């Protein structure tokens, strides 16, 4: 997926300069220039800042293939987001982000993180670990979740997920309101 090209196209569509996007996103002009040319990868946190500056959801960067059903998402038709500098993979399990809840599948390889920085957004989220082990950093607290464990968090508190196990971590997350 060429995230940089999508970001550049969206920025130009809004008649924004790189400098304006940099000011709104709190990212440097140089970094944004490299991102737009797909020269460097970006973190979920940076993608979040850019999406907020462009007044769109992160979900806008998912593959835009339309689902044949309004309510069903087939496993081979999930919208996926894979960032260049991360092995974490995100799959949207809801057909779109138009309702009041969002459902994600997050896959993180051993030793990897969902992001290097903590992220915040409105609402709350609930996660269930299906496989592996996750360290959840939430504010000043840390929680270790193993297969079958679940957690509920206030999403306005800075948080991130790290796979501290020996196998790939697979977890399911519900967020309200939709923020991805």
Distinctive features:
180 residues, alpha+beta, 434 Repressor (Amino-terminal Domain), Jelly Rolls, 6-stranded antiparallel sheet, 4 helices, 9 strands
Beta fraction of the residues?
25-35%
- What would you call the shape? globular
Count of separate DSSP helical elements: 4
Top-tier CATH class of the largest domain? Mainly Beta
Task: Let me know the CATH homologous superfamily of the largest domain.
Answer: Jelly Rolls
Give an overview in words:
With 180 residues, the protein is α+β, with helices and mostly antiparallel strands. It has 2 domains: 3-56, Orthogonal Bundle (434 Repressor (Amino-terminal Domain)); 75-176, Jelly Rolls, CATH 2.60.120. The chain contains 4 helices and 9 strands, in the order H-H-H-H-E-E-E-E-E-E-E-E-E. Strand 5 (133-138) and strand 6 (141-146) form a beta hairpin. The chain is globular, with a radius of gyration of 16 Å.
Give a quick precis of the structure.
By secondary structure, the protein is of the alpha+beta class. The chain has helices at residues 3-13, 18-25, 29-36, 44-53, and strands at residues 79-82, 89-92, 102-108, 124-131, 133-138, 141-146, 150-154, 159-163, 169-176.
What topology emerges from the helices and strands here?
Elements: H1 3-13, H2 18-25, H3 29-36, H4 44-53, E1 79-82, E2 89-92, E3 102-108, E4 124-131, E5 133-138, E6 141-146, E7 150-154, E8 159-163, E9 169-176
Antiparallel strand pairs: 1-2, 2-3, 3-9, 4-7, 4-9, 5-6, 5-8
